[in-house]
Specification:
Structural class: alpha/beta
Helix content: 25-40%
Order of helices and strands: HHEEHHEHEHEEHH
Number of strands: 6
Strand order of the largest sheet: 1-3-2-4-6-5
Radius of gyration: 17 Å
Shape: globular
């Protein structure tokens, strides 16, 4: 049932027209393209999540890149952020190859579900408040469909903020969320998943070495240790 739920959610995400500014931008980018991709057909739609409902790790980014996910139709695929991230996902055993270039590239995720808190490429990579609000119900529905979820890894302060807002919509004890910082770990409570935070693997962060290869490797090694020490869960909770 969870797998069919995710398929339904993905279909609804792909056809969403809720944010006029994002619709106009993603479609314009798909028509105009850039030189190195001028012969490719762009996806040009909202980008759904990727992975299995049985995954115990959920990684949340910010939004598709204009010439990455907006082009390929798969989250963290075909851009520098994905190139950086998948190198270390492979190293940590969460996928079968260190690259994510296209939907048909043979990539398989292991115990991992990937998505973003905003599903369309935003101008200047900056969604506005109403766009976050419009996407948040999709985030909640994904959360409820990941029946074995044990750990959420948020990439960046905005993904952290949006995850916290989403969790607040679920009945249960309210946790006081500490300020975001790289390496933040919040143990799960009452059968809910734990949370781990990292800087986003954006080109800006990796080129300025705010996020180094060693830092990304350690975060994903930490995620692997957490999962190894956490018994599989049968159903979702509040976090």
């Amino acid at each position: 049932m969870s797998e069919s739920n995710l398929a339904t959610i993905s279909s609804e995400i792909s056809s969403c027209q809720a944010c006029p500014r994002l619709v106009a931008y993603r479609e314009r980018i798909s028509r105009e393209k850039i030189r190195r991709f001028r012969n490719e057909e762009y996806w040009g739609q909202p980008v759904p999540g990727f992975g299995s409902s049985e995954a115990r790790l959920w990684i949340l980014g910010l939004a598709p890149a204009a010439h990455g996910g907006n082009r390929t139709g798969r989250v963290f695929t075909g851009d520098k952020s994905g190139d950086f991230l998948f190198r270390f996902l492979f190293e940590a055993g969460f996928c079968n190859q260190p690259t994510s270039s296209a939907k048909n590239d043979g990539l398989v995720l292991h115990d991992l579900y990937l998505s973003a808190v905003v599903r369309c490429a935003p101008p200047d990579n900056k969604p506005n408040p109403s766009e976050f609000d419009n996407c948040r119900p999709f985030l909640l529905r994904e959360f409820l469909s990941l029946s074995r979820l044990s750990l959420v890894l948020v990439l960046g302060a905005l993904a952290y903020r949006e995850y916290a807002k989403m969790i607040s919509n679920i009945p249960g004890p309210i946790r006081k969320w500490p300020p975001f910082f790289h390496g933040l770990f919040i143990p799960g409570k009452q059968d809910g998943p734990s949370l781990l935070a990292s800087y986003h693997p954006s080109a800006r962060n990796t080129q300025t070495r705010r996020l180094t290869p060693a830092m990304m490797s350690e975060v994903l090694s930490h995620a692997r240790r957490i999962l190894s020490d956490t018994p599989p869960r049968k159903q979702n909770g509040t976090g």
